[in-house]
Specification:
The protein is built from 3 helices and 9 strands, in the order H-H-E-E-E-E-E-E-E-E-E-H. It is α+β, with helices and mostly antiparallel strands. The relative contact order is 0.17.
């Protein structure tokens, strides 16, 4: 039998973890939002604010929209992701500036 505690995680618990890119060792920050697919009932991406996010408002900075499949491991205090910065920039640009759907198979 699967222990619920081992297979479930609250949003508040996710938000308390640091997100680290294993490709370059860079700490990206902490999750501030999630992108949900309500039809399929899945989390599509986590959103980590850029360095210039201030009191919930963007001051011209970039936010990292990280597809769920880029998460390598969720540990007790850290979330490890494998992120190519060009992929994140393209995904972010499509979602925020052009408001176009993103084909996740190409990420």
């Amino acid at each position: 039998m699967i222990n619920r505690r081992e297979s479930a995680l609250k949003i508040s618990e996710l938000q308390a973890k640091d997100v680290v890119n294993i490709s370059d060792g860079r700490k990206l920050g902490q999750i501030y939002d999630l992108e949900l697919d309500l039809r399929q009932g899945i989390i599509r991406a986590i959103v980590v604010p850029g360095e210039t996010k201030w009191f919930g408002w963007f001051a011209g900075g970039q936010e990292w929209v990280i597809p769920w499949k880029q998460i390598v491991k969720i540990g007790s205090d850290v979330i490890l992701v494998r992120l190519d910065h060009r992929v994140s920039d393209l995904y972010h640009e499509n979602k925020r500036m052009l408001n176009l759907p993103v084909d996740e198979n190409n990420l």
